[in-house]
Design goal:
binds 2'-monophosphoadenosine-5'-diphosphate; Rossmann fold; single chain; alpha/beta; 21% strand; six-stranded parallel β-sheet; five-stranded mixed β-sheet; 2 domains; 282 residues
Length: 282
């Protein structure tokens, strides 16, 4: 067999990453011979770890907590528009001797929503949170042609600052993008996304009731084996019938990285199904 192409995910901690499993399944589907490993990088050793990886012939890297901002800085000369607006990078590769960076989280989430048969064109979207996770999905959400994207945050000023920053780069979305605090949420929404870390802390959010219609989707970026986070439970109690955790986002962001590195489009759906079964089986 030909020499494998080398990939890795770098983070700290990294033990629980599913990326090697995901990419092994993608590669199997694509008929590619790859080697994908987890690399635990010391907190002060990210730059040298990236340099060494590519000097040794590595083809592509995924970057996770806490290095996404450092990856952005390293690839600053060659960022995709998605990475630039996200302010962070989860995918690195070399081209013509230069390091390039993209952020595939947002397009991964949008693709996961669309594979569920949901179009976001002309829809009302409520995005909860204004940290790195929220920022990473704004541009792909706007690009769906949604009618409204309201970003609310516990600290409302942080949401306003984020929206101001985005509108400086994307003034064409001034009529679509706005910010507020939780107390400003009114009416019904087609899609409500939890990009806060509330589900990780097992906390409920201070949401008003009546947010969901029959066809609204509640989406949590966090995932659990049973597709059941505190936010999704809260949404179901408030009448949401469509609920989705972030496992699909994980799989679909990986598929975008795989495409950037290999120029091969695989079908993520069976990989998502396999990963869900594996998680449920523990
Ligand atoms: P990440 O990179 O995961 O987005 P972050 O940048 O630390 O992490 O952002 C965490 C987000 O979750 C913030 O929007 C935070 O709100 P504040 O800016 O007000 O801190 C939000 N958050 C965390 N815990 C929360 C809770 N219990 N209720 C509501 N929002 C919460």
């Amino acid at each position: 067999m030909n020499t494998p192409l080398n990939f890795a995910v770098m983070g700290n901690p990294i033990k629980h990453s599913y990326s090697p499993r995901l990419h092994a399944l993608f590669a199997k589907q694509a008929g590619l011979n790859i080697h994908y490993e987890k690399i635990l990088v010391p907190l002060d050793g990210f730059e040298i770890a990236v340099k060494t990886f590519f000097e040794q012939g590595g083809k592509g890297l995924n970057i996770t907590v806490p290095f996404k901002l450092q990856a952005y800085e390293l690839a600053k000369a060659n960022l995709s528009p998605r990475a630039r607006l996200a302010g962070s990078v989860n995918t690195l590769w070399m081209k013509s001797g230069h390091l390039h960076g993209c952020n595939t989280d947002g397009i991964g989430m949008v693709n996961d929503i669309q594979r569920q048969g949901i179009s976001l064109e002309n829809k009302k979207i409520l995005l909860l949170g204004a940290g790195g996770a929220a920022r990473g999905v704004i541009l792909p959400l706007l690009e769906t042609g949604c009618r409204q994207l309201l970003i609310v945050n516990r600290t409302a000023t942080k949401a306003s600052e984020l929206v101001q920053q985005c509108l400086t780069d994307l003034p064409q979305y001034a009529g679509v993008l706005s910010a507020g605090g939780f107390e400003q949420i009114q009416g019904q929404w087609d899609l409500v996304i939890n990009a806060t870390s509330s589900s990780l802390q097992q906390n409920a959010l201070p949401l008003p009731t009546g947010l969901f219609t029959n066809n609204s989707l509640a989406y949590d970026m966090v995932y659990t084996p049973e597709n059941d986070t505190p936010f999704l439970q809260q949404a179901r109690q408030d009448g949401a019938t469509l609920t989705s955790d972030g496992l699909g986002m994980l799989v679909y962001q990986g598929a975008e990285s795989f495409f950037i590195w290999n120029q091969v489009r695989i079908n993520p759906a069976p990989v998502l199904e396999a990963l869900r079964q594996e998680l449920l089986a523990g």
